[in-house]
Amino acid sequence: MSAAVAPLTPEQREAVERRDGPLLVRAGAGSGKTRVLVERFVAAVREDGVPADRILAVTFTEKAAAEMRSRVRARLVEEGDREAARAAESAAIATIHGFCARLLRASALAAGLDPDFRVLDETEAARVALDAFDGALEEFLASAAAGDRLDLAAAYGPDRLRTMVVAVHGRLRSRGESEPSLPPVAAPRAGEERERLARAVAAAAAELAAGGRSGAAVERAAGTLERCDRLLGRLPAGELAEPDDLAALEVKAGNAAALKTPAFEELREAHAAYLTLCEAARAAAHHAMLARLLELFGARYAALKEERSALDFEDLELLARDLLAAGGLGEAYRSRFELVMVDEFQDTNRLQCELLDLVAREGRSNLFTVGDELQSIYGFRGADLEVFREWRQAAEA
Q1: Would you tell me how many other CB atoms lie within 10 Å of the CB of residue 7?
Q2: Residue 24: which of 368, 350, 362 has the closest Cα?
């Protein structure tokens, strides 16, 4: 004899019974959210007469999808509705990637895909990305601008560069960019920073020479001023100093009274202003080079996947998004699903939310989402808590 099932709590029952519009349920750990989703599904079938194949239930993992399907089927059997239980076997209960893959296989020609395309798991996708980055870096360093690019590779190291580029590529795609790119950053415009520093160096050096003071701090300052003067003197017109070289030439006051005069205060301010300019210029140059490396990586990664007739998870989402947005297919799906349910909503990203908006009806009137921002653990996969908060604010409005 099976154990008695505890009745729904008032909050759970309200979530199940409120079916007159969009609903976002904040459900913490142990609150019975899976049961609420199951009961909501069963109520839609049993009480509202919605066929099981007209309900879309999105879960975060395959395991959660299998569990939900099993529990829905068991509840329908318990209610004596074996026909609905059989229909639930083929209901659209899946991860967002499973749903997208199913959509794309059904419309492969419209999407320009091989109908037998493979879906790369995370491990294989990472291997393909590694090969793509190695090829992109080789091409990047072989260009006419290899000198500056070698400096970039040396500054960051290949492993760190790969981590940066692959992470940015994935994050931009999770935000909906099919071909990720970095927006240009304008290089800073130089003013009189270099000339100001040169004047300050000369004034401080002259003050030390005239003051007749000695001591280790004063001697170190004099040596630093001499090196700074040489650095500025050998810079070609229009060229900025290397920030690391310049940073090493700061004259700190310490406890030396001779280094706390107005001349040395001006020196430190002039040094800081010129260093800021040089750092900004280097950052802009690195940004432009990283943008090019990102472009090369994206192209190679796409080519390697095409060779394998394979898609990664972001491809599934991006291509499904584009298909749903382009024509009548989106309207067909909006007409088909009378109820759209989403579990673990806090772990969705902006692109996935675009997809949900494309299959939900106007005003998200048939959308039921469950999540808790305190349980978000997939930021490294592109989950965007800001999206959850935006949807929560819209639901509260």
Answers
A1: 8
A2: 368
Average pLDDT, the chain: 89
* Element (DSSP H or E) covering residue 355: helix 350-359
pLDDT value of position 1: 38
Q: Which DSSP letter does residue 371 get?
A: E
SS3 24: strand
32 C-beta neighbours (distance < 10 Å), count: 16
Neighbouring residues of 339: CB distance < 8 A, sequence distance ≥ 6: 40, 41, 44, 50, 54, 55, 56, 366, 368
- CA Rg, the chain, in Å? 31
Backbone angles phi, psi at 171, to 5 degrees: -65, -40
Assess contact for 386 and 349: CB atoms under 8 A: no
pLDDT at 111 over 50: yes
Cβ atoms of 359 and 334 within 8 Å: the answer is yes
85-109 pLDDT tens trace: 999 999 999 999 999 999 999 999 9
Helix 122-141 × helix 146-156 angle, to 10°: 140
Strand order across the 339-342 sheet: 23-26, 367-371, 339-342, 55-59, 92-95
pLDDT of the residue at 211: 75
What are the residue ranges of helices labelled H in 24-145? Answer: 33-46, 62-78, 82-88, 96-106, 108-111, 122-141
Helix (H) or strand (E) holding 23: strand 23-26
CA distance 93 to 90: 8
Cα–Cα distance list, 142 to 82, 121, 137, 148, 171 (Å): 66, 32, 9, 11, 27
Q: What is the pLDDT of residues 167-219, one digit of tens each?
A: 999 999 999 999 999 999 999 999 999 999 999 999 999 999 887 667 889 99
* Chain CA centroid to CA 48, Å: 39
Structure-token match 């190679």, residue found = 300
- CA 4 remoteness from chain centre: 45
pTM here is 0.81
Q: What is the pLDDT of residues 290-346, one digit of tens each?
A: 999 999 999 999 999 999 999 999 999 999 999 999 878 899 999 999 999 999 888
